[in-house]
Amino acid sequence: MGRPEKEFDLAIIGSGIIGAMIGHLAAEGNPGLRVLTMDDGNTGATHLSAGLDVPTGHTAGQRALAARGSAVYARLRAELPALPIRPVDTYWVIDKANLHRLRESMAGPRLTEADAERRDWLAGVLPGLRTADRLLLRSDGGAHADVGRLAGRLLDEQRRRPGSEVRGGSPVTGVRPRDGRYELTHGDEVYAVAGRVAVATGARAPWGPFGDVARARGLRVKKVAALHLGVRPPDDAPVLVFDDHDAFLLPVHEEGYWLLSFTSRHWDLSPGDGPPDLSPEDRATAAGVLDAYVPALAAEVCGGRAFYDGYTPDRMPLVEPVDGWPGVVLALGGNGSGYRLAPAIAERALELLSLDTRKGDRS
Protein backbone atom coordinates (compact mmCIF):
# COMPACT_ATOMS: atom_id res chain seq x y z
CA MET A 1 0.00 0.00 0.00
CA GLY A 2 0.89 3.64 -0.05
CA ARG A 3 2.29 3.90 -3.60
CA PRO A 4 0.89 7.22 -4.87
CA GLU A 5 3.37 7.31 -7.74
CA LYS A 6 1.71 4.30 -9.37
CA GLU A 7 -1.06 5.32 -11.76
CA PHE A 8 -3.88 3.38 -13.37
CA ASP A 9 -6.34 4.09 -16.14
CA LEU A 10 -9.28 2.70 -14.16
CA ALA A 11 -9.68 2.09 -10.43
CA ILE A 12 -12.56 -0.02 -9.12
CA ILE A 13 -13.49 0.35 -5.47
CA GLY A 14 -15.01 -2.98 -4.48
CA SER A 15 -14.14 -6.54 -5.46
CA GLY A 16 -17.50 -8.28 -5.32
CA ILE A 17 -19.02 -9.74 -8.47
CA ILE A 18 -19.96 -6.29 -9.84
CA GLY A 19 -16.48 -4.86 -9.30
CA ALA A 20 -14.84 -8.01 -10.66
CA MET A 21 -17.08 -7.93 -13.73
CA ILE A 22 -16.29 -4.25 -14.39
CA GLY A 23 -12.58 -5.03 -14.38
CA HIS A 24 -12.97 -8.12 -16.56
CA LEU A 25 -15.11 -6.47 -19.24
CA ALA A 26 -12.94 -3.34 -19.22
CA ALA A 27 -9.83 -5.40 -19.99
CA GLU A 28 -11.65 -7.52 -22.60
CA GLY A 29 -12.36 -4.46 -24.68
CA ASN A 30 -9.12 -2.62 -23.86
CA PRO A 31 -6.32 -5.20 -23.38
CA GLY A 32 -3.71 -2.56 -22.55
CA LEU A 33 -5.86 -0.84 -19.93
CA ARG A 34 -4.21 -0.57 -16.51
CA VAL A 35 -6.89 -1.61 -14.04
CA LEU A 36 -6.71 -1.51 -10.24
CA THR A 37 -9.35 -3.25 -8.14
CA MET A 38 -9.33 -2.42 -4.45
CA ASP A 39 -10.32 -5.44 -2.34
CA ASP A 40 -11.01 -4.82 1.33
CA GLY A 41 -12.30 -8.35 1.90
CA ASN A 42 -15.90 -7.27 2.54
CA THR A 43 -17.72 -9.17 -0.20
CA GLY A 44 -20.43 -10.91 1.83
CA ALA A 45 -23.14 -10.55 -0.80
CA THR A 46 -20.88 -12.14 -3.41
CA HIS A 47 -19.60 -15.06 -1.33
CA LEU A 48 -22.99 -15.84 0.22
CA SER A 49 -25.13 -15.27 -2.87
CA ALA A 50 -27.30 -18.16 -4.01
CA GLY A 51 -25.96 -17.54 -7.52
CA LEU A 52 -29.19 -18.26 -9.37
CA ASP A 53 -29.63 -16.73 -12.82
CA VAL A 54 -33.16 -17.07 -14.12
CA PRO A 55 -33.76 -14.18 -16.54
CA THR A 56 -36.93 -12.49 -15.30
CA GLY A 57 -37.98 -9.02 -14.24
CA HIS A 58 -41.07 -7.21 -13.06
CA THR A 59 -40.44 -4.22 -15.34
CA ALA A 60 -39.16 -3.84 -18.88
CA GLY A 61 -35.94 -2.32 -17.53
CA GLN A 62 -35.31 -5.24 -15.18
CA ARG A 63 -36.01 -7.74 -17.95
CA ALA A 64 -33.55 -6.03 -20.29
CA LEU A 65 -30.80 -6.14 -17.68
CA ALA A 66 -31.53 -9.78 -16.82
CA ALA A 67 -31.50 -10.86 -20.47
CA ARG A 68 -28.24 -9.05 -21.07
CA GLY A 69 -26.69 -10.66 -18.01
CA SER A 70 -27.67 -14.14 -19.18
CA ALA A 71 -26.23 -13.47 -22.64
CA VAL A 72 -22.88 -12.36 -21.24
CA TYR A 73 -22.67 -15.31 -18.86
CA ALA A 74 -23.47 -17.70 -21.73
CA ARG A 75 -20.60 -16.20 -23.71
CA LEU A 76 -18.22 -16.41 -20.76
CA ARG A 77 -19.14 -20.06 -20.19
CA ALA A 78 -18.34 -20.81 -23.83
CA GLU A 79 -15.03 -18.93 -23.75
CA LEU A 80 -13.94 -20.02 -20.26
CA PRO A 81 -15.48 -23.46 -19.63
CA ALA A 82 -13.76 -23.80 -16.25
CA LEU A 83 -15.80 -20.97 -14.74
CA PRO A 84 -18.02 -22.28 -11.90
CA ILE A 85 -21.32 -21.76 -13.74
CA ARG A 86 -23.62 -24.63 -14.72
CA PRO A 87 -27.03 -24.86 -16.38
CA VAL A 88 -29.95 -25.77 -14.13
CA ASP A 89 -33.50 -26.81 -15.01
CA THR A 90 -36.07 -24.40 -13.63
CA TYR A 91 -39.59 -25.23 -12.48
CA TRP A 92 -42.23 -22.83 -11.28
CA VAL A 93 -45.02 -23.56 -8.80
CA ILE A 94 -47.63 -20.85 -9.06
CA ASP A 95 -51.30 -20.13 -8.50
CA LYS A 96 -53.27 -20.15 -11.74
CA ALA A 97 -54.46 -16.59 -11.10
CA ASN A 98 -50.86 -15.35 -11.33
CA LEU A 99 -49.89 -17.06 -14.59
CA HIS A 100 -50.23 -13.90 -16.70
CA ARG A 101 -47.99 -11.96 -14.35
CA LEU A 102 -45.34 -14.69 -14.53
CA ARG A 103 -45.46 -14.88 -18.32
CA GLU A 104 -44.98 -11.11 -18.52
CA SER A 105 -41.93 -11.31 -16.26
CA MET A 106 -39.98 -13.74 -18.46
CA ALA A 107 -36.97 -12.14 -20.19
CA GLY A 108 -36.50 -14.71 -22.95
CA PRO A 109 -37.14 -18.17 -21.51
CA ARG A 110 -40.28 -19.98 -22.64
CA LEU A 111 -42.73 -21.41 -20.12
CA THR A 112 -44.31 -24.82 -20.71
CA GLU A 113 -46.65 -26.73 -18.43
CA ALA A 114 -45.23 -29.86 -16.85
CA ASP A 115 -47.02 -33.07 -17.77
CA ALA A 116 -48.01 -35.89 -15.41
CA GLU A 117 -44.68 -37.65 -15.94
CA ARG A 118 -42.76 -34.54 -14.86
CA ARG A 119 -45.00 -34.13 -11.81
CA ASP A 120 -44.33 -37.72 -10.79
CA TRP A 121 -40.60 -37.25 -11.32
CA LEU A 122 -40.55 -34.13 -9.14
CA ALA A 123 -42.50 -35.96 -6.46
CA GLY A 124 -39.59 -38.41 -6.35
CA VAL A 125 -37.01 -35.62 -6.19
CA LEU A 126 -38.87 -33.82 -3.41
CA PRO A 127 -41.21 -36.19 -1.55
CA GLY A 128 -44.35 -34.42 -0.38
CA LEU A 129 -44.06 -31.56 -2.88
CA ARG A 130 -47.46 -29.83 -3.03
CA THR A 131 -48.44 -28.96 -6.60
CA ALA A 132 -51.92 -30.49 -6.95
CA ASP A 133 -53.85 -27.21 -6.72
CA ARG A 134 -51.20 -25.12 -8.50
CA LEU A 135 -49.65 -24.84 -11.93
CA LEU A 136 -46.30 -26.54 -12.41
CA LEU A 137 -44.33 -24.94 -15.23
CA ARG A 138 -40.87 -25.36 -16.66
CA SER A 139 -38.54 -22.83 -18.30
CA ASP A 140 -35.14 -23.06 -19.94
CA GLY A 141 -32.17 -20.72 -19.71
CA GLY A 142 -31.47 -21.05 -15.98
CA ALA A 143 -27.97 -21.28 -14.52
CA HIS A 144 -26.32 -21.54 -11.12
CA ALA A 145 -22.90 -20.22 -10.14
CA ASP A 146 -20.57 -20.31 -7.19
CA VAL A 147 -20.41 -16.52 -7.20
CA GLY A 148 -17.50 -16.17 -4.81
CA ARG A 149 -15.33 -18.51 -6.86
CA LEU A 150 -16.44 -16.83 -10.07
CA ALA A 151 -15.45 -13.37 -8.83
CA GLY A 152 -12.15 -14.83 -7.64
CA ARG A 153 -11.43 -16.30 -11.08
CA LEU A 154 -12.10 -12.97 -12.76
CA LEU A 155 -9.85 -11.16 -10.29
CA ASP A 156 -7.11 -13.74 -10.79
CA GLU A 157 -7.19 -13.02 -14.52
CA GLN A 158 -6.81 -9.32 -13.75
CA ARG A 159 -3.80 -10.02 -11.52
CA ARG A 160 -2.09 -11.75 -14.44
CA ARG A 161 -2.45 -8.79 -16.81
CA PRO A 162 0.63 -6.57 -17.11
CA GLY A 163 0.01 -3.18 -15.56
CA SER A 164 -3.10 -4.28 -13.65
CA GLU A 165 -3.45 -5.16 -9.96
CA VAL A 166 -5.86 -6.35 -7.30
CA ARG A 167 -4.95 -4.92 -3.90
CA GLY A 168 -6.26 -5.98 -0.51
CA GLY A 169 -6.11 -4.33 2.87
CA SER A 170 -7.88 -1.37 4.43
CA PRO A 171 -10.89 -0.01 2.54
CA VAL A 172 -10.77 3.09 0.39
CA THR A 173 -12.43 5.80 2.44
CA GLY A 174 -11.99 8.76 0.11
CA VAL A 175 -11.49 9.91 -3.46
CA ARG A 176 -10.01 13.33 -4.18
CA PRO A 177 -9.01 15.18 -7.37
CA ARG A 178 -5.36 15.49 -8.36
CA ASP A 179 -4.32 17.21 -11.59
CA GLY A 180 -7.25 15.91 -13.64
CA ARG A 181 -7.05 12.45 -12.09
CA TYR A 182 -8.15 10.96 -8.76
CA GLU A 183 -6.36 9.80 -5.64
CA LEU A 184 -7.78 6.85 -3.74
CA THR A 185 -7.18 7.31 -0.03
CA HIS A 186 -7.55 5.73 3.38
CA GLY A 187 -7.27 8.53 5.89
CA ASP A 188 -4.12 10.44 4.92
CA GLU A 189 -2.63 7.52 2.98
CA VAL A 190 -2.81 7.60 -0.80
CA TYR A 191 -3.22 4.14 -2.31
CA ALA A 192 -3.08 4.98 -6.00
CA VAL A 193 -3.98 7.49 -8.69
CA ALA A 194 -6.41 6.75 -11.54
CA GLY A 195 -7.94 8.55 -14.46
CA ARG A 196 -11.38 6.96 -13.97
CA VAL A 197 -13.07 5.50 -10.91
CA ALA A 198 -15.95 3.01 -10.57
CA VAL A 199 -17.51 2.72 -7.11
CA ALA A 200 -18.92 -0.80 -6.57
CA THR A 201 -19.01 -1.00 -2.78
CA GLY A 202 -22.27 -2.95 -2.43
CA ALA A 203 -24.04 -2.75 0.91
CA ARG A 204 -21.24 -0.57 2.33
CA ALA A 205 -21.95 2.16 -0.21
CA PRO A 206 -23.87 4.49 2.15
CA TRP A 207 -20.78 4.69 4.40
CA GLY A 208 -18.07 4.70 1.73
CA PRO A 209 -16.85 7.10 -0.96
CA PHE A 210 -19.77 9.14 -2.33
CA GLY A 211 -22.05 7.61 0.29
CA ASP A 212 -23.97 10.89 0.48
CA VAL A 213 -24.85 10.51 -3.21
CA ALA A 214 -25.98 6.90 -2.73
CA ARG A 215 -28.18 7.88 0.21
CA ALA A 216 -29.64 10.84 -1.69
CA ARG A 217 -30.63 8.42 -4.49
CA GLY A 218 -32.56 6.35 -1.98
CA LEU A 219 -30.14 3.44 -1.58
CA ARG A 220 -31.05 1.40 1.50
CA VAL A 221 -29.58 -1.73 3.02
CA LYS A 222 -31.67 -4.87 3.48
CA LYS A 223 -30.94 -8.34 4.77
CA VAL A 224 -30.98 -11.26 2.32
CA ALA A 225 -31.61 -14.64 3.92
CA ALA A 226 -31.73 -18.37 3.17
CA LEU A 227 -32.02 -21.69 5.01
CA HIS A 228 -29.97 -24.82 4.38
CA LEU A 229 -31.91 -28.09 4.33
CA GLY A 230 -29.88 -31.20 5.09
CA VAL A 231 -31.18 -33.49 2.35
CA ARG A 232 -28.80 -34.32 -0.50
CA PRO A 233 -30.42 -33.36 -3.82
CA PRO A 234 -30.23 -35.82 -6.73
CA ASP A 235 -27.73 -34.98 -9.46
CA ASP A 236 -30.52 -33.95 -11.86
CA ALA A 237 -32.50 -31.95 -9.30
CA PRO A 238 -33.89 -28.66 -10.68
CA VAL A 239 -34.46 -25.34 -8.99
CA LEU A 240 -38.08 -24.74 -7.95
CA VAL A 241 -39.31 -21.16 -7.88
CA PHE A 242 -42.29 -20.38 -5.64
CA ASP A 243 -43.15 -17.12 -7.34
CA ASP A 244 -46.21 -16.36 -5.22
CA HIS A 245 -43.97 -16.27 -2.14
CA ASP A 246 -40.89 -14.67 -3.77
CA ALA A 247 -38.85 -17.72 -2.80
CA PHE A 248 -36.96 -20.57 -4.45
CA LEU A 249 -35.47 -23.94 -3.57
CA LEU A 250 -32.02 -24.50 -5.10
CA PRO A 251 -29.99 -27.73 -5.14
CA VAL A 252 -26.45 -27.01 -3.94
CA HIS A 253 -24.81 -30.17 -5.24
CA GLU A 254 -21.25 -29.27 -4.22
CA GLU A 255 -22.23 -29.00 -0.54
CA GLY A 256 -24.96 -31.65 -0.53
CA TYR A 257 -27.99 -29.66 0.61
CA TRP A 258 -30.99 -27.69 -0.63
CA LEU A 259 -31.00 -23.91 -0.18
CA LEU A 260 -34.29 -22.14 0.46
CA SER A 261 -34.07 -18.45 -0.44
CA PHE A 262 -36.90 -16.32 0.88
CA THR A 263 -37.67 -12.66 1.48
CA SER A 264 -36.42 -11.06 4.68
CA ARG A 265 -38.16 -7.87 5.82
CA HIS A 266 -35.25 -6.40 7.79
CA TRP A 267 -34.30 -2.96 6.44
CA ASP A 268 -31.86 -0.14 7.16
CA LEU A 269 -29.15 -2.27 8.69
CA SER A 270 -25.44 -1.48 8.79
CA PRO A 271 -22.62 -3.83 7.75
CA GLY A 272 -20.54 -2.06 10.37
CA ASP A 273 -22.55 -3.88 13.03
CA GLY A 274 -21.19 -7.22 11.82
CA PRO A 275 -22.77 -10.02 9.80
CA PRO A 276 -26.52 -10.47 10.28
CA ASP A 277 -28.20 -13.47 11.90
CA LEU A 278 -31.37 -15.25 10.89
CA SER A 279 -34.06 -13.77 13.14
CA PRO A 280 -37.13 -15.56 14.53
CA GLU A 281 -39.15 -13.57 11.98
CA ASP A 282 -36.92 -14.87 9.16
CA ARG A 283 -37.35 -18.44 10.35
CA ALA A 284 -41.13 -18.01 10.59
CA THR A 285 -41.23 -16.69 7.02
CA ALA A 286 -39.18 -19.64 5.77
CA ALA A 287 -41.36 -22.09 7.71
CA GLY A 288 -44.42 -20.65 5.99
CA VAL A 289 -42.88 -21.28 2.56
CA LEU A 290 -41.89 -24.85 3.46
CA ASP A 291 -45.32 -25.58 4.91
CA ALA A 292 -46.99 -24.34 1.72
CA TYR A 293 -44.87 -26.38 -0.70
CA VAL A 294 -42.56 -28.99 0.86
CA PRO A 295 -43.59 -29.55 4.50
CA ALA A 296 -41.45 -32.70 4.70
CA LEU A 297 -38.33 -30.49 4.58
CA ALA A 298 -39.35 -28.40 7.61
CA ALA A 299 -37.60 -30.85 9.94
CA GLU A 300 -34.41 -30.87 7.84
CA VAL A 301 -33.11 -27.37 8.60
CA CYS A 302 -29.36 -27.68 9.20
CA GLY A 303 -28.22 -24.06 9.00
CA GLY A 304 -28.60 -20.92 6.99
CA ARG A 305 -27.01 -17.74 5.74
CA ALA A 306 -27.72 -14.02 5.77
CA PHE A 307 -26.00 -10.99 4.33
CA TYR A 308 -26.64 -7.39 3.37
CA ASP A 309 -27.33 -5.87 -0.02
CA GLY A 310 -28.14 -2.41 -1.33
CA TYR A 311 -31.67 -1.78 -2.61
CA THR A 312 -33.05 1.12 -4.64
CA PRO A 313 -36.61 2.49 -4.58
CA ASP A 314 -37.41 1.24 -8.11
CA ARG A 315 -35.34 -1.98 -7.81
CA MET A 316 -33.16 -0.85 -10.71
CA PRO A 317 -29.40 -0.71 -10.16
CA LEU A 318 -27.95 2.71 -9.41
CA VAL A 319 -25.47 3.18 -12.27
CA GLU A 320 -24.75 6.83 -12.91
CA PRO A 321 -21.98 9.43 -13.03
CA VAL A 322 -21.29 11.57 -9.98
CA ASP A 323 -22.13 15.20 -10.66
CA GLY A 324 -19.07 17.41 -10.61
CA TRP A 325 -16.69 14.43 -10.71
CA PRO A 326 -15.98 13.67 -14.37
CA GLY A 327 -14.79 10.11 -14.81
CA VAL A 328 -16.39 8.82 -11.57
CA VAL A 329 -19.33 6.40 -11.78
CA LEU A 330 -21.44 4.62 -9.18
CA ALA A 331 -22.32 0.95 -9.83
CA LEU A 332 -24.53 0.04 -6.88
CA GLY A 333 -27.86 -1.50 -5.94
CA GLY A 334 -27.78 -5.19 -6.69
CA ASN A 335 -31.26 -5.44 -5.12
CA GLY A 336 -30.59 -9.03 -4.13
CA SER A 337 -29.71 -9.90 -7.75
CA GLY A 338 -26.16 -8.57 -8.00
CA TYR A 339 -24.81 -11.73 -9.62
CA ARG A 340 -27.60 -11.94 -12.18
CA LEU A 341 -27.33 -8.28 -13.17
CA ALA A 342 -23.57 -7.78 -12.78
CA PRO A 343 -22.71 -7.96 -16.52
CA ALA A 344 -25.32 -5.37 -17.48
CA ILE A 345 -24.36 -3.12 -14.56
CA ALA A 346 -20.68 -3.38 -15.54
CA GLU A 347 -21.36 -2.62 -19.20
CA ARG A 348 -23.40 0.45 -18.33
CA ALA A 349 -20.73 1.71 -15.92
CA LEU A 350 -18.04 1.31 -18.59
CA GLU A 351 -20.18 3.10 -21.18
CA LEU A 352 -20.51 6.04 -18.80
CA LEU A 353 -16.74 5.99 -18.36
CA SER A 354 -16.31 6.06 -22.16
CA LEU A 355 -15.01 2.49 -22.07
CA ASP A 356 -17.76 0.73 -24.04
CA THR A 357 -16.66 -2.90 -24.21
CA ARG A 358 -19.77 -4.75 -25.38
CA LYS A 359 -18.74 -7.53 -27.70
CA GLY A 360 -20.58 -8.96 -30.68
CA ASP A 361 -23.23 -10.72 -28.60
CA ARG A 362 -25.40 -7.63 -28.14
CA SER A 363 -28.97 -8.40 -27.22
TrEMBL record:
Keywords: Oxidoreductase. It is an enzyme of class 1 (oxidoreductase). PANTHER family: GLYCINE OXIDASE, SARCOSINE DEHYDROGENASE-RELATED. Residues 158-179 are annotated as: Disordered. Its EC number is 1.-.-.-. It comes from Streptosporangium jomthongense. The keyword Oxidoreductase applies. This is NAD(P)/FAD-dependent oxidoreductase. Residues 9-349 form the FAD dependent oxidoreductase domain. It holds the Pfam family DAO. One of its GO terms (molecular function) is oxidoreductase activity.
